[in-house]
Amino acid sequence: MQVQAHHAQTPTERLKDAGAVAFIALLLGIPMLGLTTIDQGGALRVITRWPSLALFVGICFGGRIVLQLAKETLARRRANRPAKAKASEMSANRLQSIIGWGGAGVAAALPLFFSDNRYVVDTATTVLIYVMLGWGLNVVVGLAGLLDLGYVAFYAVGAYTYGLLSTELGWGFWQALPVAGAITAGFGLLLGWPTLRLRGDYLAIVTLGFGEIIRLILVNWTNFSGGPNGISSIPRPGLFGFTFTPPGSGTSIAEAFGFAYAPTQRIIFLYYVILGLALLTNLFVRSMRKLPTGRAWEAVREDEIACKAMGINVTRIKLSAFAIGAMLGGFAGVFFAARQGFISPESFTFSESAIILAIVVLGGMGSQMGVVLASLVLVLLPELGRDFAEYRMLLFGAAMVLIMVWRPGGILSHRAPTLVYVAPGEKA
């Protein structure tokens, strides 16, 4: 198999390309870096910061040249490399498996090493929530190929279902969890049924509208959802009827089992709850992909017309993807409500849907491991950038752009196929 050689740019072309990038950086950098305001005698005064702007433009100019040279070098190496695609794919799959098991072990042991650091455990809990949401949306977008921009609606339905069941009917976390999952699956069917004939941009518009409808209902139906004030005093999950509360409450697990109480015990317990839910979600999705329904998801994603010609019930397949993806999002919403103890419509805006979709796309469509890596990037980067104050979101956006330039198909664009055909006499 011959590989087409990559066109190498001449020095003049490189300079023109880098100059265009530097010009765009200049236009974007003037309002963000070149100008700022200060308070002077009770009035705002605009001052300039040309050195910072010049440094930013220079970095973009030089970085573009370095990036182009790196891409040309990699292209030449790939063109000259012998064809060993199957062996490299097998080694990559084996490496992903090792990283996956190692990551699960690190996740299980993390609270043991940071039991006194609530910030680390809380941040890890947030990462796992987005991992679970990413795996749920990955069923709809990554496996079935249905673009959903309103996935946060199912997240909200799950959270409000638990909030209402717990505060109005006194249900516990474990009682409400399967009920909330069933209700959100019903909402998934409600969204999927009228959108069966839609694809691409039209499907994205409808799902975006569905997410906004749910949010507006939560804001305006005050008697049902509490309106903008939300729902408060949502109980945290317990263990065998006991809660992680101080001794003297009558249900304190520390008092019942005779060990010292610490406020971080509840935080660690919540972490292990979401870790268990995430692992079960991963196991469930991986199992579904090997079943006929899961394989039909991927077939519909590749060619819906061919699936209809082969007799696959495309309607049932699409509805199952919407229902299962919604159910997983509802489970994450239940945990979110239980962890926060308070929910309001402000937690379920379109920006949340955008972040979850970015996790699926940046991680690699259909890749379970890619969702985990993208969640780490998108959750930890803003946290690490807090020290950079006003440059925080600029760095975050630049990191996302670099990822898409470096890996256009996602961090793990080449995922392992669900089923592999082995010819007679060939080793598996």
Key attributes of the depicted protein:
428 residues, mainly alpha, ABC transporter involved in vitamin B12 uptake, BtuC, 2 domains, two-stranded antiparallel sheet, 16 helices, 3% strand, globular, disordered N terminus
Structural notes for this entry:
The chain is mainly α and 428 residues long. The chain has 2 domains: 70 residues; 290 residues, ABC transporter involved in vitamin B12 uptake, BtuC, CATH 1.10.3470. Helices cover 69% and strands 3% of the residues. It contains 16 helices and 2 strands. It has a two-stranded antiparallel sheet with strand order 1-2. The radius of gyration is 25 Å and the shape is globular. The N terminus is likely disordered.
Number of strands: 2
In terms of DSSP E residues, the strand content is: under 5%
Overall tally of structural domains:
2
- What's the end-to-end separation, in Å? 23 Å
Element pattern in H and E: HEEHHHHHHHHHHHHHHH
CATH topology title of the largest domain: ABC transporter involved in vitamin B12 uptake, BtuC
Shape: globular
Alpha-beta classification: mainly alpha
Using the CA coordinates, give the radius of gyration: 25 Å
Q: CATH top level of the largest domain? A: Mainly Alpha
Q: What is the residue-mean pLDDT, rounded to a whole number?
A: 80
CATH architecture of the largest domain: Orthogonal Bundle
Report low-confidence residues grouped into runs of 5 or more: 1-5
In short:
Helices cover 69% and strands 3% of the residues.
Write the layout of secondary structure elements.
Elements: H1 11-34, E1 35-40, E2 43-48, H2 50-80, H3 85-113, H4 118-143, H5 152-168, H6 173-192, H7 200-220, H8 222-225, H9 253-257, H10 264-290, H11 292-302, H12 304-309, H13 314-340, H14 350-363, H15 368-384, H16 392-406
Antiparallel strand pairs: 1-2
